[in-house]
Amino acid sequence: MKKASIVLIVVGIVMAIVGSFIFNNLNYVNAVDAHAWSININGIRSFPWIGFLGGVLLVIGIIFNISAKGNKSH
Q1: N vs C: which end of the chain shows fewer Cβ within 10 Å?
Q2: Where are the transmembrane segments (predicted)?
Q3: What gap in Å lies between CA 74 and CA 66, rounded to an integer?
């Protein structure tokens, strides 16, 4: 579990960095916001999925790493 958490942390950091380079000029509007802007839906590129998924994997890796510290019986 410890190695898996480290892999998740590293993959999360890499994906967040790559996502910031791919989606650097993206202007997206949240569909839930109540304002007069138009919502331009242009497929997969309308939301920075790679950076978001990198952040999720980073947090999951940190949680796994913290939870594996107390389990030393294996």
Answers
A1: C
A2: 7-26, 46-68
A3: 15
Please state, in angstroms and rounded to a whole number, the distance separating the CA atoms of residues 38 and 28.
Answer: 10
Check if the beta carbon of residue 35 is closer than 8 Å to that of residue 67.
no
> How far from chain centre, in Å, is Cα 40?
22
DSSP-derived letter for residue 44 is: G
pTM of the model: 0.68
Torsion of CA 39, 44, 50, 51, to 10 degrees: -10
Q: Render pLDDT for 27-59 as a digit per residue (tens, 0 to 9).
A: 555 566 655 555 555 666 667 788 889 999 999
> CA 48 to CA 31: how far, in whole Å?
15
